[in-house]
């Protein structure tokens, strides 16, 4: 089933909804609740009114404030740490260093290679050295600054290519993972060969709400940590190991998450908090500054990519050769998983008979890299789409036509040897954006100066502006990969006419709590559904990443709700001599197919509470083998983007005029949220294409603030037209739904770069695009 939804941008970059002419629009009078309806978020009013409690708003009696001393060097040997002066300061209650960590001194979600506090070697700018608790935040910061650390500054390794030959930066070595993918015949060649070298910058999640948390000691010697965690059970287990406590003596309570794209997965802030609370016996709070936020959490992997594409004279791909080098920064974090995605999707959503890809992830003394939406897939998408543009130019072929000749479909093979069994309507997506009417050209009119690249105060001239149209096709995997045990647990309780969902899936802004309410409304016909706050007393549900919670946690909620439905209907069905399938629940009423039975849910419950707990676990996957082969992924999602840009070829300034999007979504569960997620993903991708790059100099982060790191604003956001959402349900996914928010992030930077190539004729092989890369020299 396919449908079309339109979204037209306004002059200030806001998005207005155009008429929707498909099944996505629902019926003329849609039901008030349930799946397929734009149910508003329960916390929307509180957030818009500014009264929603985030971690930075927390308070407790006897509260102390924490501050962390961080290394000013990207690489140094620690000769001594003297906390004497800091501990003497009035109001200081505790100072902790590596010597005060009672349990494991290193942590990591995948590899425990990151110290709680650096003890002998500093490996990146901003690494924690010590932490202070004091009765006032200014006192804490002054005390942290008073800690005397003697360093022997070492030469940093900041070029990932040099990491192979450099002295080991870590006891585990500099190489985190190497994947040599081999698929097909290495001797195969094409009549046409194009090569390219591509560089992708260090994008930061840049959350509007910086990291914050509160740790409260417990009478049993344990501690409770209140923070914006996206994986509370993993955070609890890491914290317990570092504190030398049993997991049941550490509790993580999830507070309001002000957005998350991987940056909330770093427990490096929570561990000092817990240690200080345990040491002082007082609640301790930490609210990171913007600089600390930039220095501490993981960023997108900067990546170097070398490509060689072979094709025949008709433009059919024959072979892809690639080398992919991910800069992991100082520690491993999720680099192994990001590399697997990059290598597996190195050829894109195209049929490639022969593929040979070498992928590496290495440690350097650069800032840490980790999980950021679309990791691995975004970097290779920019490179393989650059190659497709080069190939089209070499063949004198329309770029969209070249892509159409090579697109993947259901039943094709990935270069990993895995068969694409899910819907893969890539050709339909590309045709949809290609055939969408182009936006009008700006008029040479002073009233439309704001439409020029650089805005009304820019120095450019209208005669220097050229328009370009480019394309991007992208893909991502959903859930964890390579044998990850993806499982979630949920409980649904019904009392009277009210249902409650208990599930440790964290609401990070992706809309899970709204989805959970819709699922229960759909299954049980009850309008009033509440979702309980999340903490580690509940069964684990895993991290909030890669659209996991729509699939595994939503699936668990649905199963639990159906179990409650059966408990509710079975007595009635037996009483009337019919099966439960002949009974329906809607608007709080239970009716039979023939109208004989009609009662309310409350009357059927008769004062009883019904509840059920269920799990959802997708089919297993397997690790990639020594040649990069294996069924590593549960499911895939695809997207096509057409970018229209105006470029001032004298100044190199770029304005993204419009982004037309067609996406493979499986099933739209909440139309308003689906549109919002796509629009947000496109905007993040535009930032990666044009402005966002956390710059470093010899490993030192330059200007770690929101003036030095250029996020796109409303004025930078283009018109976003969602021209088609393909609802071809994935039969193995609960509700048939696919991931929505990550794949536009993956695809849109490649589309913008493609459009700038079309406008300038320049290669544009670096993201974000530098102005000099878009300048066309006369003659």
UniProtKB/TrEMBL annotation:
Matching entries from InterPro entries are given as: Ald_Oxase/Xan_DH_a/b, Ald_Oxase/Xan_DH_a/b_sf, Ald_Oxase/xanthine_DH-like, AldOxase/xan_DH_MoCoBD1, AldOxase/xan_DH_MoCoBD2, AldOxase/xan_DH_Mopterin-bd_sf
GO MF terms held by the record: iron ion binding; oxidoreductase activity
The coiled-coil segments of this chain are none
Provide the Aldehyde oxidase/xanthine dehydrogenase a/b hammerhead domain boundaries: 49-155
One Pfam family recorded for the sequence: MoCoBD_1
* Region spans: Disordered: 439-462
> Which organism is this entry from?
Streptomyces eurocidicus (Streptoverticillium eurocidicus)
Q: Which named protein is this?
A: Oxidoreductase
SUPFAM superfamilies, alphabetically? CO dehydrogenase molybdoprotein N-domain-like (SSF54665), Molybdenum cofactor-binding domain (SSF56003)
């Amino acid at each position: 089933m396919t449908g079309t939804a339109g979204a037209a941008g306004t002059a200030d970059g806001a998005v207005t909804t155009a008429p929707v002419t498909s099944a996505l629009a629902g019926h003329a009078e849609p039901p008030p609740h349930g799946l397929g309806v734009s149910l508003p978020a329960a916390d929307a009013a509180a957030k818009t009114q500014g009264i929603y409690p985030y971690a930075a708003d927390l308070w407790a009696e006897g509260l102390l404030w924490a501050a962390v001393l961080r290394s000013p060097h990207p690489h140094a040997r620690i000769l001594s740490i003297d906390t004497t002066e800091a501990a003497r300061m009035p109001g200081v209650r505790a100072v902790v260093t590596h010597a005060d960590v009672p349990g494991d001194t290193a942590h990591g979600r995948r590899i425990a290679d990151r110290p709680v506090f650096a003890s002998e070697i500093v490996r990146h700018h901003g690494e924690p050295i010590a932490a202070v608790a004091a009765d006032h935040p200014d006192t804490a910061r002054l005390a942290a600054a008073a800690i005397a650390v003697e360093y022997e500054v070492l030469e940093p390794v900041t070029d990932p290519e040099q990491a192979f030959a450099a002295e080991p930066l870590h006891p585990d070595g500099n190489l985190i993972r190497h994947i040599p993918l081999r698929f097909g015949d290495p001797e195969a060649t094409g009549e046409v060969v194009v090569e390219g070298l591509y560089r992708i910058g260090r994008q930061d999640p840049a959350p509007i709400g910086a990291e914050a948390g509160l740790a409260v000691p417990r009478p049993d010697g344990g501690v409770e940590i209140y923070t914006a965690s996206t994986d509370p059970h993993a955070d609890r287990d890491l914290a317990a190991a570092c504190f030398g406590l049993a997991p049941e003596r550490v509790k993580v309570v999830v507070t309001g998450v002000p957005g998350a794209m991987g940056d909330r997965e770093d427990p490096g802030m929570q561990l000092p908090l817990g240690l200080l609370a345990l040491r002082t016996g007082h609640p301790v709070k930490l609210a990171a500054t913007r600089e600390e936020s930039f220095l501490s959490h993981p960023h997108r992997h900067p990546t170097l990519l070398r490509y060689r594409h072979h094709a025949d004279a008709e433009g059919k791909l024959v072979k892809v050769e690639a080398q992919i080098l991910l800069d992991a920064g100082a520690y491993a974090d999720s680099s192994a998983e990001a590399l697997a995605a990059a290598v597996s999707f190195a050829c894109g959503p195209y049929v490639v008979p022969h593929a040979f890809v070498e992928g590496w992830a290495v440690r350097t003394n650069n800032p840490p890299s980790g999980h950021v939406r679309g990791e691995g897939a975004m970097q290779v998408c920019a490179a393989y789409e650059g190659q497709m543009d080069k190939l089209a130019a070499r063949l004198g072929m329309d770029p969209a036509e070249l892509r159409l000749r090579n697109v993947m479909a259901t039943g094709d093979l990935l270069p990993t040897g895995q068969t694409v069994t899910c819907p893969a309507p890539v050709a339909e997506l590309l045709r949809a954006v290609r055939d969408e009417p182009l936006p009008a050209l700006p008029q040479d009119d002073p009233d439309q100066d704001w439409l020029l690249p650089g805005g009304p105060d820019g120095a450019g001239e209208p005669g220097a502006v050229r328009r370009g149209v480019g394309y991007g096709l992208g893909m991502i995997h959903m859930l964890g990969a390579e044998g990850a045990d993806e499982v979630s647990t949920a409980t649904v309780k019904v009392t009277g006419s009210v249902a409650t969902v208990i599930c440790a899936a964290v609401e990070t802004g992706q809309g899970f709590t709204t989805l959970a309410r819709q699922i229960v409304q759909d299954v049980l016909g009850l309008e009033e559904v509440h979702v309980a706050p999340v903490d580690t007393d509940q069964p684990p549900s895993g991290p909030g990443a890669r659209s996991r919670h729509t699939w595994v946690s939503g699936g668990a909620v649905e199963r639990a709700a159906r179990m409650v439905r059966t408990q509710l209907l079975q007595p009635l069905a037996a009483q009337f001599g019919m099966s439960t399938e002949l009974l329906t629940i809607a608007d709080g009423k239970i009716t039979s197919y023939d109208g004989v039975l009609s009662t309310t849910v409350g009357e059927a419950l008769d004062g009883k509470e019904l509840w059920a707990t269920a799990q959802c676990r997708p089919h297993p996957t397997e690790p990639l083998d020594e040649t990069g082969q294996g069924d590593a992924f549960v499911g895939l999602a695809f997207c096509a983007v057409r970018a229209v840009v105006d470029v001032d070829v004298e100044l190199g300034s770029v304005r993204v005029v419009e982004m037309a999007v067609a996406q493979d979504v499986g099933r739209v569960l909440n139309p308003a949220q689906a549109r919002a997620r796509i629009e947000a993903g496109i905007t993040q991708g535009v930032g990666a294409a044009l402005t966002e790059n956390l710059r470093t100099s010899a490993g030192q982060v330059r200007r770690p603030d929101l003036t030095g790191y250029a996020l796109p604003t409303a004025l930078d956001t283009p018109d976003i037209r969602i021209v088609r959402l393909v609802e071809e349900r994935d039969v193995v996914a609960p509700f048939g739904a696919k991931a929505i928010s990550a794949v536009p992030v993956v695809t849109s930077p490649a589309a913008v770069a493609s459009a700038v190539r079309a406008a300038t004729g320049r290669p544009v092989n670096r993201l974000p695009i530098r102005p000099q890369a878009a300048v066309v020299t006369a003659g």
